[in-house]
Every structure is written in C-alpha cells, then in structure tokens.
Amino acid sequence: MIEAQGLRKVYGEKTAVDGVSFTVQPGKVTGFLGPNGAGKSTTMRMIMGLDRPTAGSVTVNGLPYAKHKAPLHQVGALLDAKAVHTSRSAYNHLRAMAATHGIPKKRIDEVIDMTGLSAVARKKAGGFSLGMGQRLGIANALLGDPQTLILDEPVNGLDPEGVLWVRNLARYLAREGKTVFISSHLMSEMAQTADQLIVIGRGRIIADTTVDALIESQTRKRTLVRTPDTSRLGVLLAGEGVRVDQNEPETLEVSGIDPRRIAELALENRVLVYELTPLTSSLEEAYFQLTRDEVEYHSHLESHTGQAPGPVNGAPGSGAPGTRRMSDAEAAAMEGSQR
Amino acid sequence: MSTAIASRTPVPSTSGAHGVNFFRVLDSEFIKFRTLLSTKILVLGTFVAIVGVAMLAALARWSIINQMTSTEGPGGQKMTPQQAAESIPPGQGFELYNLPNAGLNIGILVLGSLAVLFIASEFATGMIRSTFNAAPDRLSTFVAKAVVLVVVSYVLSIAGGALSFLLAAPMFTGMGLDLDWGTDGVLYSLLTGGLYVSGVALIGLSLGTLLKNSAGGITILVAIMFVLPFAGSFLAFVPGDFWKYVPQYLPSEAGGRFLSIGHADGILDPWQGGLIFLGYVILFMFPALFALKKRDV
C-alpha cells in the first residue's frame, strides 16, 4: 500500500510533481501512466526516499520508506536499470545488496533463476544489454520478497518474451496480495497488465480510475461512415454536439449522433452510404485524449507540418465540426515540397 | 482507518526476517570493496609501490650518508656514519627511524584516490540508489565505507611499511649504524603512518561524497596533498618570518609532522601536527555527511 498526500517536487524553477495525492492498493496492479517528463520517475524516487519532497508526504505500508526497519522486505524497487556498479558481476551486486538484510544466499540464487540471469550472473553488469539490465534490476527488487513492488518502466528494452514475463509476474504478485505499482508510457502495455490506472501529466494527476472506466469516460461513441459525397453528408450531419472528421477520402468519423440517425439523414437526403460502423475507442486513444494538453515534449515534426496526423493532433475529435483534415497523401506531398 | 493501522505492522517475507543494521551494512560494503577487480589490482599494486618507493628512498639516504662519510668535510675530517645520520635536519621525515614511511606518499596517492572512487563511482553508475534503498538512513553507508577504507589503508600501510623497514634496515646496519625495531621512533612512525594514510582516505571519501565525481575528487585531493605543500614552500621566499611558519599548518605538512618524533624549535610538535590533521579530516567529513543526508540522489 502506497499513500501519497499532496506530494510536490520543485527543481529550481521547474515543478516536476505538483501536489499529487493517490493511494495504491494491495492485491492489484496499478499502472502509473504519463508522457515523458510527466513526473512519474520523480514521484517514484520520492516514494523510495531518494528525493526529498518539496511539500507533502508519502508512506509505504504505513511508514515513510526510510523509517522501515527492514526496507528491502517491505518495498522492492526498480527505479533505474543502471543502478548497478558496471564493473561488478550481477551475482556480487545481489550479494552486496542481500548482505544489508542478512538475506541468505539461497534467495540470491532464487531471484537469479526467476529472472533468467543464470547464464550471465558471473559477468560484469556493465556489459549487459538493456534487457539484461532490466532483469537484474527486477531481481534486485525481488530480493527481499517485498510486500510492495515499484517498477519504473520495467519493460523498457525487454524482448517480447520478457515483456510477457513481466506482465505475468506483476499479475502473479498482485494475486498474492502484494501491492504492484508500475510506471509506463506504453498505454498498450498497461491495458493488458494493470487493473487500476493513475494517469499523470505535467506533474498533476489527471485520472485515477480503473482501465475500463477510463476508456468509458474518455471516449465519445463514434461512427465510421463511408460515402462518396462526404462534403454534403458532413453539412447534413453538422449540428449541436456533433463532430465530423475526415482522415481518408470518402470516409467520415462522426461522433455525437447515433448510427441509426446518420442512416436516416442519409436516406432522407438520398446520399449514398456504403459503410456504417460503430467504433469503440482503445485505451490508447483514451490516453491521448486525456494527456493531449499535458504532453511536455511535443515532437518537432508536428510544429513544422502543422496538421500532419501525429500522435497528439491525431487524437479523435480534435478537429472542428465539418473540418476536413489533410490526408496522408497531401501531407506527404507537402513534406516533399519543403525538401 | 483500520487498514492504515493494520499496514503499519511489518509484512512477513519469505526471504528472511532480518532488518538492516550497521554491521550488515558494513558486511555489504566489504563485499562491494572486494568484488571489484580494479580495486584488488590497485591494492596489490599499492603494496608493491609502497615497498618499491621505500627502497629507492632508502637507497637515496644510504648514498647521501655514504658520500658524507667518504668525503672530507671543511675540517679535513671524515664524518662517522653516526654523525652523518644525525646531521639530517629533524622533523622533515628524512631521519632513518622514519624508513617505514619512506614509501608512504605513494600509498596516500593511491589509497586517497581509491577512497574517492569508492563512493563517487556509486554516484556515477547509479549504484548509490540501490545502496540507499537497502540502507535508507544513508549515514550508516558512509560510516561503513569509512571503516572499510580505514582498515584497508591502515593494514596496507603498516604491512608495506614493515616490509620496507625489514628490507632497508640491513643497508644501514651494514654501515655500522644502529637501526632496528627498538630504535626510537621506528615503531611510532610505522603505527602513525597507517593513521595518516587512513586520514587521507577519509578526506578522499568526503571529497567523493561532496563532488559525486571521481575525476574532480581525485584532482582536489592531489591538489590538497601534493600541490599545496609545493606552493607553500614558496612562502619561505616572502620577506618576514611570519610566512615561514604558515606551510606547516597545511594538511600534508601537519600530517607528516605527526609521523616524526622529538621537539624542534619553530615547528609544531608531533601531537600538535596530528591534532591539526585530525581537524582537517573532520572539516571535510562533516559537510560530506550533511550533504549525503540532505541531497537527492
């Protein structure tokens, strides 16, 4: 269980975390989601007592981290895959960590087996690939068999098999009643791993809810309509609370009006419609919708080409009613002419 | 709030029920020290270097005494080896009883740098975050590292010094000089030499903690221990008596004085030198402890 109260961190003039409060419950996998620079890692470092909060407080299993008598048995953390001396072997690194809590050698071998490091355990950690480094970091976190696990971007650099392994491990530990707190900027990964989601953007919590509820709240029911006469249908559909976007030729994305009503309008006005498909949003889209204004580092490309469909502007419903967005072909042509 | 109360009791773990305490942190730091190949090579190399430099220094003294006894002085008389040995100015660390410490400077250089690296490399690699997760009170880690460095420095200096003396003493006894473990100051300088190197290692550890950077820490340590006394020696050329007495308060000079015996007019007594050096060690250590406790890592 992790409880944060008004947690705030200011570096010089920059506010990294701006007064966040949340609770991470045991028995669940809680995803901590946000764009790069949103304050995820800073929050996790404050939980672990590595960074001193400018204001507010945070407890793990009821106590501030540093007050625990046996912190490795309470909380295991992977904050940074590189938190290992590069010239020491993985085994000796774990041995030095285990010594601080009198953890037996047997347990070191266990976590090495568990994380698939047996073949490289005697090699210098500095020579590890990103994925091996992540596995060593996870082995380090599991060493004390802690009640609470904090993993900062654990799947970074892992191969598909490793990603699946982390997912299963997180779910297994949560089933055992442990608190599992995982940060990621990968929405798709969290959709499959987490039960609960805390979404952070520019240092503020923008959602704290279940995965299903997040999708529900952040998406409007949309309908894909294919018609050769998009401009006419667009005008006909325009009205109170209705959005019409065009991303492809002969295709409209309509929200704020149900498919039956679209069909009726088309029939009454004799507009040919050859596809009418209700769309459900993915968690990915819900996330973009939610963090659209909270992204710290917009990609540079976006500011050049203006309307090119990027991850940020490409979010559903961002166009004005009836506006027609630049097609891919046009964007490519424009980019070509700039060269 | 029953959940909050329940969660305050430690949750049992299958990997053991021991908490963290100072001796476990010390054990961990000793493991860290001996599991780096570079450290082992450096320690072995230092031992060889201490003895080797001591041999060269002993040879230099031997040839000076040899020259003084074989050439005629102003009075037309040759000096006896005893007279030549006694003509060495006191308190400068060149007396024969100081032979165990003849290679000490190399030990200071390497062990001081090793001390900077012992903590600065943890900051550089990010290891410090793992370390502080395991021992979140932080100060125990610093103290444990200090104990490791003091033990290693002391043992290495004493072993190197004793071997140096054993190898060098026959050169001088062969000239008819009285020099053995019973000679005044021999044991004293051997034992205090280890303390001096340990103190420099503590200054190195403090510098590594304050700067979080190996290169910067080592540079400053070398500047303090080797460049400052060199610069200080130029103060003797400043007119007036006052400046002549300033350099002996530098860490390296005060520490070096601690290793000699006997009183000499105008210079610090050994115990005063020792206290001043200890003052420097504390002067570096307290800001380091404060910074370690307060700073984000």
Strand order of the largest sheet of chain A: 5-6-7-3-8-9
Estimate percent helicity of chain B: 55-70%
> How far do the termini of chain A sit from each other?
54 Å
Summed up, the helix count of chain B is 11
Summarize the structure.
The complex is a heterodimer of chains A (339) and B (297). Chain A is of the alpha/beta class and 339 residues long.
Q: What can you tell me about this protein's structure?
A:
The complex is a heterodimer of chains A (339) and B (297). By secondary structure, chain A is of the alpha/beta class. Chain A has two domains: 2-210, P-loop containing nucleotide triphosphate hydrolases (Rossmann fold); 220-279 and 298-338, Alpha-Beta Plaits. Chain A has helices at 40-47, 71-74, 90-99, 105-114, 130-142, 160-175, 187-193, 211-218, 230-237, 259-268, 283-291, 300-305, 328-338, and strands spanning 2-11, 14-24, 29-33, 55-60, 75-78, 148-152, 179-184, 196-201, 204-210, 222-226, 243-248, 251-255, 275-279. In chain A, the strands form three sheets. Chain A has a six-stranded mixed β-sheet with strand order 5-6-7-3-8-9, sandwiched between helices. Chain A starts with a strand and ends with a helix. The radius of gyration of chain B is 23 Å and the shape is elongated. Mean pLDDT of chain B is 87; it is low at 1-9. Chain B has one domain (42-294). By secondary structure, chain B is mostly helical. Classes of the chains: A alpha/beta (339), B mainly alpha (297). At the A-B interface, helix 2 and helix 3 of A face helix 1, helix 2, helix 5 and helix 6 of B.
